[in-house]
Amino acid sequence: MVETFGQVLCFDLLPLGGALPRWQAGAHIDLFLGDGLVRQYSLCGDPADVSRYRLAVLLEAESRGGSRAVHRLVTPGTRLRIAPPRNLFPLSAGARHSVLIGGGIGITPLIAMAYELHDRGEAFTLHYVARDTVFAPVLAQSPFADAVRIHDRGDAATPRFAPGSALASGYDPNETHVYVCGPIGLMDAVADAASQAGVPQANVHREAFSALPVAGGGSFEVLAAKSGVRVRVGAEEAITTALARGGVRITVSCEQGICGTCVVNLLEGDADHRDEYLTEDERTDQIALCCSRAHSPLLVIDA
User: Fold this and answer.
1) What contacts 262, CB < 8 A, 6 or more positions away?
2) Which residues, in sequence order, are bridge partners of residue 150?
3) With a cut of 50, which residues of the chain have pLDDT below it?
4) Closest residue by Cα to residue 85 from 22, 178, 32
5) Which GO terms describe its molecular function (predicted)?
C-alpha cells in the first residue's frame, strides 16, 4: 500500500523473506535512503499485525533531505533497507487511563499506541491536533474510533485545543499516563497542564520529532580528548560540523537530537542540552553532539 494524503505519504513495508521483527507501540525504524542518509520514522500501524510495517512521512518544507528522499523514492515495489525497530517511547504498564495527544505528524506513534491499548481492553482517549487533519478519515475507520477526538486547527470555528480539558478524564491523576508527540510548544503546554492536574511527572511521556535549534548563544570550544583535537564551534554551527572540520568524524543519523547516534561521554564543562533523547540523569555525563551547545567556554568530550 502506498497512498498520499496531502503532504503525507503513507506506505507499508513488506519483508522480502522471512518474518519482520515484532515491535511494540512507540517504536521507530531507521530508513537507509542512500548516500549515507539515514532517518528515523515511527511505526504507525497495528503492532499485532506482524506482516508489515506501516509508515507515514510528511514532506517537510525545510527538509534536510530525508522526507524529500522518501517522497521521491517510495513507489510500489521499491526496495528499502531498514534497521530493526527501536523503542524510546513505550507504553507504561499499570495505567487505569491513558491520554494520547498527537500534534500534526506527531500522531503517528500514538496511532500504534491506540491499537495496542484497544487490543488490551484498556481505557484511553486519543487527541489529534492539526491544521490539516489528514489522518481523520483513517482514525474514523479504526476499531477505536469512539476514543478519538479531532482538533482541527485549520477550522476557525473549532475551539482551540485545551490540554487541561483533555486531561479532565475523571480518573485518578496518579493512575493516569499522558503521552504527547509533536511540536515542542504543544508538548510543553501538555506537560504544564498535566502538572496542574496532579499527574505525576513520571507519568508524562513525550517524544519530539525535532530538537531545539542549534543556533543561539555565542561560540565556544570543544576538546576531543581521545583525538587531542580542539576546535571552536561557531554560534550557528553544530559541534559535529566543527569537529569534522578538525578531522574528528562523529557518526550522526537524525541530526536533530532524537536518535542518540551521536551521543558521547561528557568529561568536563557545562552543556546546553537541546536533544530529546537523553534523560536528565544521563545529561550529567553525556551529550548529543548534533544539536547541543555549551554554557561554559569549553566542553571536553570522550572522542
Assistant:
1) 240, 250, 251, 252, 253, 255, 288, 289, 290
2) 128
3) none
4) 22
5) 2 iron, 2 sulfur cluster binding; metal ion binding; oxidoreductase activity
DSSP strands (E only) in the chain: 2-5, 8-13, 27-32, 38-42, 53-58, 81-82, 86-87, 97-103, 123-130, 148-152, 176-181, 204-207, 220-224, 229-233, 263-268, 271-272, 286-288, 293-294, 298-301
Q: For residues 285 and 265, is the Cβ–Cβ distance under 8 A? A: yes
| Half-sphere exposure (Cβ direction) of 232: Cα atoms closer than 13 Å | 4
Identify the structural domains of the chain with CATH numbers, from first to last: 2-87 (2.40.30.10), 97-207 (3.40.50.80), 220-301 (3.10.20.30)
CA atoms within 13 A on the CB side of 278: 26
Edge-to-edge strand order for the sheet containing 2-5?
2-5, 8-13, 53-58
Q: What is the DSSP letter of 141?
A: T
Q: What are phi and psi of 255, to 5 degrees?
A: 60, 25
Q: Please count the CA atoms within 13 angstroms of the CA of 94 that sit on its side-chain side.
A: 5
CB 187, CB 206: distance < 8 Å: yes
Q: What is the model's pLDDT at position 260?
A: 82
The pLDDT of residue 277 is: 79
- Rounded CA separation 91/224 (Å): 37
pLDDT digits (tens, 9 = 90+) for 77-113: 999 999 999 898 999 988 999 999 999 999 999 999 9
Show the CA angle centred on residue 235, arms to residues 229 and 239, nearest 5°.
35
The pLDDT value recorded for residue 251 is: 86
Single pTM value for the model: 0.80
Instruction: Take residue 186 and report the three cell numbers written for it.
Output: 504543544
